[in-house]
Automatic annotation (TrEMBL):
Gene3D superfamilies: CinA-like (3.90.950.20). Residues 2-70 form the CinA C-terminal domain. It comes from Algoriphagus jejuensis. The lineage of its organism: Bacteria, Pseudomonadati, Bacteroidota, Cytophagia, Cytophagales. InterPro entries: CinA-like_C, CinA_C. It comes from the Bacteria. This is CinA C-terminal domain-containing protein.
Amino acid sequence: MLSAAPEAGLFFKGGLTTYSCGAKNRLLNIPEQQCKLVSGVSPDIAGMMAENVRKVYDSEIGMGITGFAALVPELGIVTKYAFASVVLNDRVQHRFNFMSTKATQAEVQIDFAAQLVLACADCLHDARIEIR
């Protein structure tokens, strides 16, 4: 979503997609056992993802989002939801909970991403942060 924007290179350094706890551990230093206890989905995991992706890209802002874009009845997942965090300069600024009623997994993922981008814009505006 961000990388598709015109002149994205002016504000977007990169992103990581980490579905499994193993990938979260290898790429974002998320403790694998802590991750597995919550199937990779919790406010704390989202916060660590945001903090560590900011470090990976040496950026001022980091965003992390993790959730379920599809129902998984065998795990008790009966709604589509996500947790997200925004980190500004080494400090978690905001945590968010998102829900979606979109039909397909792809639509839900786009919905969650859009909600995160809008929430991030709001928190930057509220914090009156000037990005270099």
